[in-house]
Amino acid sequence: MECGMRGQLEERESKIMSPNQSTAEVSHLAVDIGGSLIKVVYSSSNNNNEADDKGKKSSNDCVGIPNGSSDYPVLCGRLHFAKFETSKINDCLEFISSKQLHQCADWHHEASSHDKNIIKATGGGAYKFADLFKEKLGVSLDKVDEMDCLVAGSNFLLKTVHPEAFTYIDGREEYVQIDHNDLYPYLLVNIGSGVSMIKVDGDGKFERVSGTSVGGGTFWGLGKLLTKCKSFDELLELSQKGNNRVIDMLVGDIYGGVDCPKIGLSSTAIASSFGKAISENKELEDYRPEDISRSLLRLISNNIGQISYLNALRFGLNRIFFGGFFIRGHAYTMDTISVAVHFWSKGEAKAMFLRHEGFLGALGAFTSFESHGLNDITTH
Ligand SMILES: Nc1ncnc2c1ncn2[C@@H]1O[C@H](COP(=O)(O)OP(=O)(O)O)[C@@H](O)[C@H]1O
Ligand SMILES: CC(C)(COP(=O)(O)O)[C@@H](O)C(=O)NCCC(=O)O
Protein backbone atom coordinates (compact mmCIF):
# COMPACT_ATOMS: atom_id res chain seq x y z
CA MET A 1 0.00 0.00 0.00
CA GLU A 2 1.63 3.22 -1.07
CA CYS A 3 1.71 6.19 1.21
CA GLY A 4 3.63 9.38 1.19
CA MET A 5 6.77 7.71 2.44
CA ARG A 6 8.78 5.62 0.06
CA GLY A 7 7.74 2.01 0.29
CA GLN A 8 4.67 0.67 1.83
CA LEU A 9 2.62 0.82 4.94
CA GLU A 10 3.08 -2.64 6.31
CA GLU A 11 0.62 -4.43 8.45
CA ARG A 12 2.57 -7.61 8.73
CA GLU A 13 5.34 -7.51 11.19
CA SER A 14 7.17 -10.34 9.44
CA LYS A 15 7.94 -8.14 6.47
CA ILE A 16 9.37 -5.38 8.51
CA MET A 17 13.04 -5.92 9.06
CA SER A 18 15.66 -8.10 7.59
CA PRO A 19 17.47 -10.04 10.34
CA ASN A 20 20.64 -8.01 9.89
CA GLN A 21 18.95 -4.64 9.83
CA SER A 22 20.57 -2.41 12.39
CA THR A 23 18.51 -0.85 15.12
CA ALA A 24 19.94 2.52 14.15
CA GLU A 25 17.52 2.51 11.23
CA VAL A 26 14.48 2.82 13.46
CA SER A 27 13.76 6.45 14.04
CA HIS A 28 10.46 6.95 15.82
CA LEU A 29 8.00 4.88 17.76
CA ALA A 30 4.42 5.55 18.86
CA VAL A 31 1.93 3.37 20.70
CA ASP A 32 -1.82 3.46 21.20
CA ILE A 33 -2.78 1.45 24.26
CA GLY A 34 -6.51 0.82 24.14
CA GLY A 35 -8.95 -1.18 26.22
CA SER A 36 -8.46 -4.28 24.05
CA LEU A 37 -5.38 -3.86 21.87
CA ILE A 38 -2.02 -2.10 21.80
CA LYS A 39 -1.16 -0.69 18.42
CA VAL A 40 2.47 0.04 17.58
CA VAL A 41 3.69 2.22 14.71
CA TYR A 42 7.36 2.83 13.99
CA SER A 43 9.43 4.09 11.14
CA SER A 44 12.59 2.79 9.64
CA SER A 45 14.78 4.64 7.23
CA ASN A 46 15.55 1.88 4.72
CA ASN A 47 19.25 2.64 4.66
CA ASN A 48 19.92 -0.36 2.45
CA ASN A 49 17.61 0.81 -0.27
CA GLU A 50 19.01 4.27 -0.08
CA ALA A 51 22.48 2.92 -0.71
CA ASP A 52 21.20 0.84 -3.62
CA ASP A 53 19.37 3.77 -5.06
CA LYS A 54 22.16 6.27 -4.71
CA GLY A 55 22.09 8.72 -7.50
CA LYS A 56 18.79 7.60 -8.86
CA LYS A 57 16.50 8.60 -6.02
CA SER A 58 13.56 10.25 -7.67
CA SER A 59 11.26 12.68 -5.98
CA ASN A 60 8.47 10.20 -6.48
CA ASP A 61 10.08 7.94 -3.92
CA CYS A 62 10.07 10.30 -1.05
CA VAL A 63 8.13 12.78 0.96
CA GLY A 64 9.04 16.39 1.41
CA ILE A 65 8.33 17.97 4.72
CA PRO A 66 8.07 21.70 5.09
CA ASN A 67 10.15 22.53 8.15
CA GLY A 68 9.28 26.14 8.50
CA SER A 69 12.16 27.24 6.33
CA SER A 70 12.45 27.22 2.59
CA ASP A 71 14.18 23.86 2.31
CA TYR A 72 12.22 20.66 2.34
CA PRO A 73 13.98 17.76 4.00
CA VAL A 74 13.05 14.52 2.38
CA LEU A 75 11.93 11.46 4.30
CA CYS A 76 12.45 8.06 2.79
CA GLY A 77 11.37 5.16 4.81
CA ARG A 78 8.76 2.74 5.92
CA LEU A 79 6.07 2.77 8.50
CA HIS A 80 5.64 -0.50 10.33
CA PHE A 81 2.54 -1.64 12.14
CA ALA A 82 2.08 -4.23 14.85
CA LYS A 83 -0.58 -5.00 17.41
CA PHE A 84 -0.87 -6.91 20.68
CA GLU A 85 -3.63 -7.71 23.12
CA THR A 86 -3.55 -5.19 25.94
CA SER A 87 -3.86 -8.05 28.44
CA LYS A 88 -0.51 -9.31 27.05
CA ILE A 89 1.33 -6.02 27.42
CA ASN A 90 4.49 -7.90 28.37
CA ASP A 91 4.61 -9.37 24.85
CA CYS A 92 4.53 -5.84 23.50
CA LEU A 93 7.29 -4.68 25.84
CA GLU A 94 9.34 -7.72 24.85
CA PHE A 95 8.81 -6.92 21.17
CA ILE A 96 9.90 -3.31 21.62
CA SER A 97 12.87 -4.39 23.67
CA SER A 98 14.00 -7.21 21.35
CA LYS A 99 14.01 -4.88 18.36
CA GLN A 100 15.33 -2.02 20.49
CA LEU A 101 12.64 0.20 19.07
CA HIS A 102 12.75 2.35 22.18
CA GLN A 103 16.32 3.37 21.43
CA CYS A 104 15.26 5.35 18.44
CA ALA A 105 17.98 6.88 16.34
CA ASP A 106 17.85 10.29 14.79
CA TRP A 107 15.97 10.59 11.59
CA HIS A 108 18.59 11.78 9.13
CA HIS A 109 20.33 13.22 12.21
CA GLU A 110 17.67 15.84 12.46
CA ALA A 111 15.62 14.59 15.38
CA SER A 112 15.86 16.92 18.31
CA SER A 113 17.45 15.43 21.40
CA HIS A 114 14.06 15.99 23.01
CA ASP A 115 12.59 13.20 20.84
CA LYS A 116 15.13 10.57 21.82
CA ASN A 117 14.06 7.77 24.12
CA ILE A 118 10.57 9.14 24.20
CA ILE A 119 7.66 7.12 23.04
CA LYS A 120 4.62 9.02 21.94
CA ALA A 121 1.71 7.25 23.55
CA THR A 122 -2.02 7.62 23.36
CA GLY A 123 -5.09 5.70 24.58
CA GLY A 124 -6.02 5.07 28.20
CA GLY A 125 -3.07 2.74 28.65
CA ALA A 126 -0.66 5.64 28.18
CA TYR A 127 -1.72 6.65 31.68
CA LYS A 128 -2.26 3.19 33.12
CA PHE A 129 1.03 1.67 31.97
CA ALA A 130 3.40 4.67 32.09
CA ASP A 131 5.22 3.28 35.15
CA LEU A 132 5.55 -0.15 33.56
CA PHE A 133 7.23 1.32 30.45
CA LYS A 134 9.60 3.26 32.68
CA GLU A 135 10.41 0.23 34.80
CA LYS A 136 10.81 -2.33 31.99
CA LEU A 137 12.21 -0.21 29.15
CA GLY A 138 13.48 2.89 30.91
CA VAL A 139 11.48 5.15 28.64
CA SER A 140 8.99 7.90 29.32
CA LEU A 141 5.65 7.96 27.62
CA ASP A 142 4.87 11.32 26.12
CA LYS A 143 1.08 11.28 26.36
CA VAL A 144 -0.95 12.58 23.45
CA ASP A 145 -4.70 13.05 23.68
CA GLU A 146 -6.67 10.11 22.29
CA MET A 147 -9.21 12.12 20.28
CA ASP A 148 -6.49 14.43 18.90
CA CYS A 149 -4.66 11.33 17.71
CA LEU A 150 -7.69 9.66 16.14
CA VAL A 151 -8.44 12.79 14.15
CA ALA A 152 -4.80 13.40 13.19
CA GLY A 153 -4.44 9.77 12.08
CA SER A 154 -7.64 9.85 10.08
CA ASN A 155 -6.81 13.17 8.37
CA PHE A 156 -3.27 11.98 7.65
CA LEU A 157 -4.51 8.79 6.00
CA LEU A 158 -7.29 10.44 4.05
CA LYS A 159 -4.96 13.09 2.71
CA THR A 160 -1.85 11.04 2.16
CA VAL A 161 -2.71 7.45 1.39
CA HIS A 162 -4.48 6.42 -1.73
CA PRO A 163 -6.49 4.31 -1.71
CA GLU A 164 -7.48 4.52 1.95
CA ALA A 165 -11.26 4.93 2.16
CA PHE A 166 -13.77 2.60 0.58
CA THR A 167 -17.45 1.82 0.59
CA TYR A 168 -18.76 -1.69 1.01
CA ILE A 169 -21.95 -2.28 -0.92
CA ASP A 170 -23.45 -5.59 -2.02
CA GLY A 171 -20.25 -7.43 -1.18
CA ARG A 172 -18.05 -5.06 -3.18
CA GLU A 173 -15.35 -2.70 -1.96
CA GLU A 174 -15.21 0.50 -3.93
CA TYR A 175 -12.43 2.98 -3.33
CA VAL A 176 -13.39 6.56 -2.72
CA GLN A 177 -11.45 9.37 -4.34
CA ILE A 178 -10.82 11.93 -1.63
CA ASP A 179 -11.01 15.55 -2.70
CA HIS A 180 -8.62 17.35 -0.35
CA ASN A 181 -10.54 20.57 -0.82
CA ASP A 182 -13.80 18.94 0.08
CA LEU A 183 -12.92 16.58 2.90
CA TYR A 184 -14.54 18.40 5.81
CA PRO A 185 -16.77 18.16 7.66
CA TYR A 186 -17.13 14.45 8.25
CA LEU A 187 -18.10 12.13 11.06
CA LEU A 188 -15.39 9.80 12.33
CA VAL A 189 -16.70 6.76 14.14
CA ASN A 190 -13.99 4.82 15.93
CA ILE A 191 -15.17 1.38 16.98
CA GLY A 192 -12.68 0.13 19.50
CA SER A 193 -13.63 -1.41 22.85
CA GLY A 194 -16.18 1.38 23.07
CA VAL A 195 -17.27 3.77 20.33
CA SER A 196 -16.39 7.43 19.86
CA MET A 197 -18.13 9.65 17.34
CA ILE A 198 -16.23 12.74 16.33
CA LYS A 199 -17.27 15.58 14.05
CA VAL A 200 -14.15 16.58 12.17
CA ASP A 201 -13.95 20.09 10.71
CA GLY A 202 -10.27 20.29 9.81
CA ASP A 203 -6.78 19.56 11.07
CA GLY A 204 -7.01 19.70 14.84
CA LYS A 205 -10.57 21.01 14.57
CA PHE A 206 -13.07 18.56 15.93
CA GLU A 207 -15.67 17.79 18.57
CA ARG A 208 -16.46 14.43 20.11
CA VAL A 209 -20.21 14.58 19.66
CA SER A 210 -21.26 11.17 20.92
CA GLY A 211 -20.25 7.69 21.86
CA THR A 212 -21.62 4.37 22.98
CA SER A 213 -20.34 1.71 25.30
CA VAL A 214 -21.85 -0.95 23.03
CA GLY A 215 -18.82 -1.55 20.85
CA GLY A 216 -16.09 -3.99 19.95
CA GLY A 217 -15.48 -4.95 23.56
CA THR A 218 -19.16 -5.81 23.89
CA PHE A 219 -19.07 -8.10 20.86
CA TRP A 220 -15.90 -9.83 21.93
CA GLY A 221 -16.82 -9.98 25.65
CA LEU A 222 -20.39 -11.21 25.24
CA GLY A 223 -19.39 -13.46 22.36
CA LYS A 224 -16.69 -15.10 24.44
CA LEU A 225 -19.11 -15.80 27.27
CA LEU A 226 -21.89 -17.07 25.04
CA THR A 227 -19.86 -19.19 22.62
CA LYS A 228 -16.74 -20.12 24.62
CA CYS A 229 -14.63 -18.89 21.71
CA LYS A 230 -10.96 -18.51 22.44
CA SER A 231 -10.12 -15.72 20.04
CA PHE A 232 -11.76 -12.75 18.38
CA ASP A 233 -11.02 -14.09 14.92
CA GLU A 234 -12.60 -17.43 15.83
CA LEU A 235 -15.75 -15.59 16.91
CA LEU A 236 -15.81 -13.70 13.61
CA GLU A 237 -15.31 -16.93 11.67
CA LEU A 238 -18.23 -18.52 13.50
CA SER A 239 -20.45 -15.61 12.52
CA GLN A 240 -19.78 -16.37 8.86
CA LYS A 241 -21.39 -19.78 9.21
CA GLY A 242 -24.33 -18.66 11.32
CA ASN A 243 -27.94 -17.75 10.73
CA ASN A 244 -29.24 -14.88 12.86
CA ARG A 245 -32.88 -15.75 12.15
CA VAL A 246 -32.60 -18.68 14.52
CA ILE A 247 -32.30 -16.29 17.47
CA ASP A 248 -33.49 -12.90 16.28
CA MET A 249 -37.21 -12.18 16.31
CA LEU A 250 -38.18 -10.95 12.85
CA VAL A 251 -41.04 -8.65 11.91
CA GLY A 252 -42.59 -11.67 10.16
CA ASP A 253 -42.47 -13.66 13.42
CA ILE A 254 -44.65 -11.02 15.00
CA TYR A 255 -46.88 -10.18 12.04
CA GLY A 256 -47.53 -13.77 10.92
CA GLY A 257 -45.12 -13.78 7.99
CA VAL A 258 -46.27 -10.61 6.25
CA ASP A 259 -44.46 -7.32 5.63
CA CYS A 260 -45.38 -4.28 7.61
CA PRO A 261 -45.41 -1.54 4.95
CA LYS A 262 -47.09 1.05 7.17
CA ILE A 263 -43.99 1.30 9.29
CA GLY A 264 -41.65 0.56 6.41
CA LEU A 265 -40.48 -2.83 7.61
CA SER A 266 -40.28 -6.03 5.60
CA SER A 267 -41.14 -9.36 7.18
CA THR A 268 -37.44 -10.28 7.20
CA ALA A 269 -36.32 -7.20 9.13
CA ILE A 270 -35.13 -7.83 12.65
CA ALA A 271 -37.82 -6.71 15.08
CA SER A 272 -35.91 -7.73 18.20
CA SER A 273 -32.33 -8.94 18.35
CA PHE A 274 -32.12 -12.20 20.33
CA GLY A 275 -35.91 -11.91 20.78
CA LYS A 276 -36.68 -15.46 19.71
CA ALA A 277 -34.86 -16.81 22.72
CA ILE A 278 -37.61 -15.60 25.06
CA SER A 279 -40.37 -17.70 23.58
CA GLU A 280 -38.50 -20.91 22.90
CA ASN A 281 -37.93 -23.44 25.59
CA LYS A 282 -34.23 -23.58 24.90
CA GLU A 283 -31.06 -23.26 26.92
CA LEU A 284 -27.91 -21.57 25.72
CA GLU A 285 -26.46 -24.97 24.79
CA ASP A 286 -29.37 -25.55 22.40
CA TYR A 287 -28.20 -22.70 20.17
CA ARG A 288 -25.32 -23.08 17.76
CA PRO A 289 -22.38 -20.78 18.58
CA GLU A 290 -22.38 -19.82 14.88
CA ASP A 291 -25.93 -18.43 15.14
CA ILE A 292 -25.22 -16.64 18.41
CA SER A 293 -22.14 -14.98 16.96
CA ARG A 294 -24.03 -13.93 13.84
CA SER A 295 -26.89 -12.35 15.84
CA LEU A 296 -24.49 -10.58 18.15
CA LEU A 297 -22.39 -9.18 15.31
CA ARG A 298 -25.51 -7.99 13.55
CA LEU A 299 -26.94 -6.41 16.70
CA ILE A 300 -23.83 -4.43 17.47
CA SER A 301 -22.97 -3.39 13.92
CA ASN A 302 -26.56 -2.36 13.24
CA ASN A 303 -26.76 -0.36 16.42
CA ILE A 304 -23.51 1.49 15.73
CA GLY A 305 -24.58 2.18 12.14
CA GLN A 306 -27.86 3.64 13.35
CA ILE A 307 -26.38 5.82 16.11
CA SER A 308 -23.72 7.02 13.69
CA TYR A 309 -26.28 8.09 11.16
CA LEU A 310 -28.37 9.86 13.80
CA ASN A 311 -25.30 11.84 14.81
CA ALA A 312 -24.47 12.62 11.20
CA LEU A 313 -28.04 13.85 10.83
CA ARG A 314 -27.67 16.06 13.94
CA PHE A 315 -24.87 17.96 12.22
CA GLY A 316 -25.90 17.63 8.59
CA LEU A 317 -22.99 15.34 7.66
CA ASN A 318 -23.22 13.01 4.68
CA ARG A 319 -19.88 11.30 5.02
CA ILE A 320 -19.20 8.88 7.82
CA PHE A 321 -15.79 7.20 8.10
CA PHE A 322 -15.53 4.12 10.28
CA GLY A 323 -12.30 3.04 11.96
CA GLY A 324 -11.28 0.85 14.89
CA PHE A 325 -10.28 -2.77 15.05
CA PHE A 326 -13.81 -4.04 15.61
CA ILE A 327 -14.29 -3.77 11.85
CA ARG A 328 -11.33 -6.01 11.07
CA GLY A 329 -12.06 -5.75 7.34
CA HIS A 330 -14.86 -8.23 7.98
CA ALA A 331 -17.43 -8.43 5.21
CA TYR A 332 -20.53 -9.02 7.33
CA THR A 333 -19.61 -6.26 9.79
CA MET A 334 -19.07 -3.73 7.01
CA ASP A 335 -22.14 -4.87 5.17
CA THR A 336 -24.35 -4.51 8.26
CA ILE A 337 -23.00 -1.04 9.06
CA SER A 338 -23.41 0.07 5.44
CA VAL A 339 -26.97 -1.24 5.24
CA ALA A 340 -27.88 0.43 8.53
CA VAL A 341 -26.53 3.81 7.38
CA HIS A 342 -28.23 3.44 4.01
CA PHE A 343 -31.54 2.37 5.56
CA TRP A 344 -31.75 5.08 8.20
CA SER A 345 -30.55 7.84 5.89
CA LYS A 346 -32.84 6.68 3.08
CA GLY A 347 -29.73 6.50 0.90
CA GLU A 348 -28.53 10.03 1.73
CA ALA A 349 -25.48 9.15 3.82
CA LYS A 350 -22.60 6.82 3.07
CA ALA A 351 -20.59 4.56 5.32
CA MET A 352 -16.92 4.52 4.39
CA PHE A 353 -14.23 2.35 5.89
CA LEU A 354 -10.55 3.00 6.38
CA ARG A 355 -7.96 0.42 5.41
CA HIS A 356 -5.81 1.26 8.43
CA GLU A 357 -8.93 1.02 10.59
CA GLY A 358 -7.35 0.22 13.98
CA PHE A 359 -4.19 2.29 13.60
CA LEU A 360 -5.68 5.79 13.50
CA GLY A 361 -4.71 6.67 17.07
CA ALA A 362 -1.21 5.23 16.82
CA LEU A 363 -0.62 7.03 13.52
CA GLY A 364 -1.90 10.25 15.03
CA ALA A 365 0.56 9.89 17.90
CA PHE A 366 3.32 9.09 15.43
CA THR A 367 2.66 12.19 13.38
CA SER A 368 2.90 14.34 16.49
CA PHE A 369 6.69 14.03 16.61
CA GLU A 370 7.81 17.59 16.08
CA SER A 371 10.99 16.60 14.31
CA HIS A 372 8.99 14.82 11.63
CA GLY A 373 6.51 17.49 10.90
CA LEU A 374 4.46 14.72 9.33
CA ASN A 375 1.38 16.80 9.94
CA ASP A 376 2.64 19.02 7.18
CA ILE A 377 3.50 16.19 4.88
CA THR A 378 3.42 16.85 1.18
CA THR A 379 3.93 14.15 -1.39
CA HIS A 380 6.04 15.03 -4.34
N1 LIG B 1 -7.04 -9.98 17.88
C1 LIG B 1 -7.99 -9.31 18.54
N2 LIG B 1 -8.11 -9.44 19.87
C2 LIG B 1 -9.06 -8.77 20.54
N3 LIG B 1 -9.94 -7.93 19.96
C3 LIG B 1 -9.87 -7.76 18.64
C4 LIG B 1 -8.90 -8.42 17.87
N4 LIG B 1 -9.05 -8.03 16.59
C5 LIG B 1 -10.07 -7.17 16.57
N5 LIG B 1 -10.61 -7.01 17.81
C6 LIG B 1 -11.76 -6.13 18.09
O1 LIG B 1 -11.26 -4.82 18.14
C7 LIG B 1 -11.65 -4.19 19.35
C8 LIG B 1 -10.55 -3.26 19.77
O2 LIG B 1 -10.39 -2.29 18.78
P1 LIG B 1 -9.32 -1.12 18.93
O3 LIG B 1 -9.59 -0.16 17.84
O4 LIG B 1 -7.97 -1.69 19.03
O5 LIG B 1 -9.77 -0.48 20.31
P2 LIG B 1 -9.06 -0.26 21.71
O6 LIG B 1 -8.22 0.96 21.46
O7 LIG B 1 -10.17 -0.03 22.65
O8 LIG B 1 -8.25 -1.46 22.05
C9 LIG B 1 -11.88 -5.32 20.32
O9 LIG B 1 -12.76 -4.94 21.36
C10 LIG B 1 -12.48 -6.38 19.41
O10 LIG B 1 -13.84 -6.13 19.18
C1 LIG C 1 -13.44 5.63 26.65
C2 LIG C 1 -13.03 5.41 25.20
C3 LIG C 1 -12.77 6.74 24.53
C4 LIG C 1 -11.72 4.60 25.20
O1 LIG C 1 -11.31 4.28 23.86
P1 LIG C 1 -11.11 2.75 23.36
O2 LIG C 1 -10.03 2.14 24.19
O3 LIG C 1 -12.41 2.02 23.53
O4 LIG C 1 -10.72 2.87 21.91
C5 LIG C 1 -14.11 4.59 24.43
O5 LIG C 1 -14.22 3.33 24.98
C6 LIG C 1 -15.47 5.26 24.35
O6 LIG C 1 -15.64 6.23 23.70
N1 LIG C 1 -16.49 4.66 25.01
C7 LIG C 1 -17.85 5.07 24.93
C8 LIG C 1 -18.20 5.88 26.14
C9 LIG C 1 -19.51 6.65 25.90
O7 LIG C 1 -19.48 7.64 25.16
O8 LIG C 1 -20.53 6.25 26.43
Automatic annotation (TrEMBL):
Cite the entry's keywords alphabetically: ATP-binding, Coenzyme A biosynthesis, Kinase, Nucleotide-binding, Transferase
Tell me which EC number(s) this protein carries.
2.7.1.33
Could you tell me which InterPro entries the record lists for this protein? ATPase_NBD, Type_II_PanK
Gene3D superfamilies (UniProt xref)? 3.30.420.40, 3.30.420.510
Pathway assignment: Cofactor biosynthesis; coenzyme A biosynthesis; CoA from (R)-pantothenate: step 1/5
Tell me the leader sequence span. Answer: none
Which CDD domains does the annotation name? ASKHA_NBD_PanK-II_Pank4
Q: Please cite one Gene Ontology biological process associated with this protein.
A: coenzyme A biosynthetic process
Leading EC class: transferase
**Catalysed transformations (reactions):** (R)-pantothenate + ATP = (R)-4'-phosphopantothenate + ADP + H(+)
According to the record, the segments passing through the membrane are none
GO CC terms: cytosol; nucleus
Q: Name a GO molecular-function annotation.
A: pantothenate kinase activity
Q: Where is this region: Disordered?
A: 1-22
Q: Which NCBIfam families match?
A: panK_eukar
Q: What is this protein called?
A: pantothenate kinase
Which species is this record about?
A: Actinidia chinensis var. chinensis
